[in-house]
Structure formats: C-alpha cells, structure tokens
Write a structure and sequence with these properties.
Elements (H helix, E strand, L loop, with lengths): L2 E2 L10 H7 L15 H21 L6 E4 L2 H14 L14 E5 L4 H9 L3 E3 L9 H16 L6 E5 L13 H11 L4 E5 L9 H4 L5 E5 L10 E5 L25 H16 L1 H22 L3 E3 L4 E2 L2 E2 L8 E6 L4 H10 L2 E2 L15 H5 L4 H4 L2 E5 L6 H22 L1
Parallel strand pairs: 1-13, 3-4, 3-5, 5-6, 6-7
Antiparallel strand pairs: 2-8, 7-8, 9-12, 10-11, 12-14
C-alpha cells in the first residue's frame, strides 16, 4: 500500500466522471457542431454541462468558454484580455494596456504576462500578495498613463490558491484596488487549485475572468474552462469554426466536458466535508513530520504561540523545506517506498527546476533545494497519511547520512 500525495499536480478521476464520459466515446460520438439528430444530442449534452458548471462556479452559462485545460484558459485570459484593450482597435496606434500579476503565479499566467512586458507584484514571506506593492505598481502605471508616458494596466491576475504552497490570496482586496486605481482593467483569477477547497462563488466574486481545469478536481485531463463575465471581453486566440460564441474555435470535447461537470458537481457538493477532512489529515501529516524530522520548515507558515498558524493555507497542500536534503534524491527514495509527491509544480520534462515561488518568498536557495510538496485530495485516506509518516523520516535520515 502506497501514498499518492500529488493531487495538486493531478487528481485520480472520479468513477462517476469516468462513467459519465463513456457514452460520448462510443454511441454518442457525434460532432456537436453538426445539424443532424446525433449532433444535436451531443450539443444538448454540452449545453446541459454548461448550465450545471455555471451554477457551480457562479456565472451565467453564456459566460463559460470551454478550453483544453487550465493553461489555455490562463493564456486566453492574459493574451485575450490584453488584445481587447480599449487601445486595441485596428486604427489605433496607442500601445495596449499592461498585464500585471503576482510574482508567485503559475507559469501559465506568469510567462504570458512577462512575454507582454507586464509587471509583477511582490509577496511577503508567507507567500501572500503584498497589497501595498500592488498598489504601488498600479499607481505608478496610472501616473504614467496620465502623463502620456504609458498605456496603463489592462489586466491584473492573482490565483486564489497557490499551486506550490497552498497560500490563499486576497482576490476581493485585489479587485477593490483595481477598481480604484485601474478602473479600465479586468481581474483574472487562476482558480485551478481552488474549486475543491474554497467557495469560489465568494472568494472570486470580484474577478472578471476565472480559469478552471477538470483534472484538478477529479475530472479528465485536457479539458477546462474560462469564465468571461459579461463586463469583460477577450479576443479569441484560436480561430476557425466560431465555437464558444467565437471566443475559442475548435470542436468541443463532449466527453471531457460532461465528465468535468460531473466531477465539479461532486467536488462542490462535498466541499465543506472535504475541507474539514483534508484539514485534519494535512495537520496530522504536518505535525507528525515536524515532530519526527529535525531541521524542517513548513514553508511560509508563521508560528503563533508555539503552534503553526495554517489559517492562510488551503487544506490540501503541505509544503516543506528540509535542510541538507536535495529534492530530487528525496523524491527518488520516497518513490521506492511508494510515496508519490513533488518538489513544486509539474513541468513538461519532469525535471527539478528552481522555484520562482520560493524565490519570491525570499526562501534561502540552499533550503529551497530541499523542498517537498505533499498534496491531498478526494481519494486521500488516513492510511496513506500513516504510510507517508512512516516512509519520509527514514528517507531524510538516509540522505543526510550521505550528505555529511
């Protein structure tokens, strides 16, 4: 018996989601863009899934744009919103507004922002966005715009739940700052990690754009969505057949969309129970490792009255830094003990890369080299926590013995 503790990378599919998608891989296979009865059946399934997902995430059905996953949703938000800038008409020679994001965003947001010459706002040592720094960034760009020396800000992006550390971000506070200092900008929330453990209706109410990815909450890989509120606008990045009201062309993945709606329904219905259950499991895992392993730090978690204060963390992510340990070697030993975890977010090669998140939090690079992310989800059991508590301490001892 092992322990799969990499849910922040991907969750196992829920059996109900697998069952929901199977008919659309066999007898209900038609293209939803067609005109005949079989095509209409596929289109009806998409419409029903769209209605259900809209109710679950808190938007109108027409505000949902189906995508191939979180990365495409994030890219469409950043590039699409920037292209929809008021300065964007073809006859205009004015520069387009700048995108801004926190320094700890997922690369699917951070890289597009930097590619467009955007700005980043700092975070504190807990990984929480520094609202004062964001205010400075917005104020500087507003002053430059007023002086005719800059295009102003078009988009501000902040993730409700950080994918590496689980840090919770103040989306509502960001929305208020943007409304005051950059009223022409839209707010984007990369909510890929948020659906299972936060009430996105409330936490992301001020966001104009929201990204979700099915495989983070028990659905299939390769399908996601971007919420585009009626007050916002994006220019399509993918042209062709005009699907998704012209905002994202391409034949929709009917099976994936139906499965995503099923997984989202279960995630939202079980959310309150899961928050309590995962908090208990996460705390037992964290407290056990902190007690058993010397020279270990719970990344960005302050200690208050002698106890870790995890109130600023989502319940499904535990991030640690271990002195005198290299992440890659630790993960290798843990895999041999059937503990499956990660050091940070997943990348295409699977190789260990320096974490921009930990660097932004001012974590010592030597300590950051021993980072370990243990993430829980809907299928995590108490037995898996027991197994991890048995396997991790001796693996650390073994590595430190050779490091001396």
């Amino acid at each position: 018996m092992g322990a799969y503790l990499d849910h922040a990378a991907t969750t196992p599919m829920r059996a109900e989601a697998v069952e929901a998608m199977l008919p659309f891989l066999t007898e209900r296979f038609a293209n939803p863009s067609g005109a005949h009865r079989l095509a209409r059946d596929a289109r009806r399934a998409i419409d029903e899934a769209r209605d259900e997902l809209a109710a679950l995430v808190g938007c109108a059905p027409g505000e949902i744009v189906f995508t191939s996953g979180g990365t495409e949703a994030d890219n469409l938000a950043v590039f699409g919103a920037r292209a929809a800038s008021p300065a964007a008409p073809a006859a205009s020679t004015a520069p387009l507004g700048l995108p801004v994001c926190s320094a700890v965003e997922h690369h699917a947001v951070l890289d597009p922002v930097l590619a467009l010459g955007g700005r980043t706002a700092a975070v504190d040592r807990t990984g929480r966005l520094d609202l004062d720094d964001l205010e400075k960034v917005l104020a500087v760009e507003a002053d430059r715009q007023g002086a005719g020396d800059g295009p102003g800000v078009r988009l501000v992006s902040v993730m409700p739940v950080n994918n590496e550390t689980g840090a919770l971000q103040p989306v509502a506070d960001v929305a208020r700052l943007v409304a005051r200092l950059a009223p022409g900008a839209v707010v984007h929330a990369d909510a890929v990690q948020a659906l299972c453990t936060t009430a996105v209706h409330d936490t992301c109410a001020g966001a104009d754009l929201l990204s979700f990815s099915a495989h983070k909450f028990g659905g299939p890989k390769g399908v996601g969505l971007l919420v585009v509120r009626e007050r916002a606008e994006v220019v399509a990045r993918q042209l062709g057949g005009g699907q998704e009201r012209g905002r994202r062309s391409g034949t929709q993945d009917v099976a994936g969309i139906v499965a995503m709606a099923t997984a989202a329904r279960l995630a939202v219905a079980q959310r309150d129970t899961e928050i309590a259950r995962l908090t208990s499991l996460r705390d037992r895992l964290a407290d056990g490792l902190l007690a058993a392993v010397p020279d270990i730090v719970e990344t960005g978690v302050p200690v208050v009255d002698g106890r870790p204060d995890r109130s600023g963390r989502a319940p499904h992510v535990l991030h640690l830094c271990l002195a005198d340990v290299e992440s890659e070697a630790l993960l290798f030993l843990l895999e041999r003990s059937e503990v499956y975890a990660s050091a940070a977010s997943s990348c295409a090669s699977g190789a260990m890369e320096p974490s921009h998140v930990l660097a932004a939090m001012d974590v010592d690079p030597v300590l950051a080299a021993g980072s370990l992310r243990l993430s829980l989800g809907w299928s995590t059991t108490s037995a898996e926590i027991d197994h991890a508590l048995e396997a991790i301490p001796p693996a650390v001892v073994q590595l430190r013995r050779f490091a001396i």
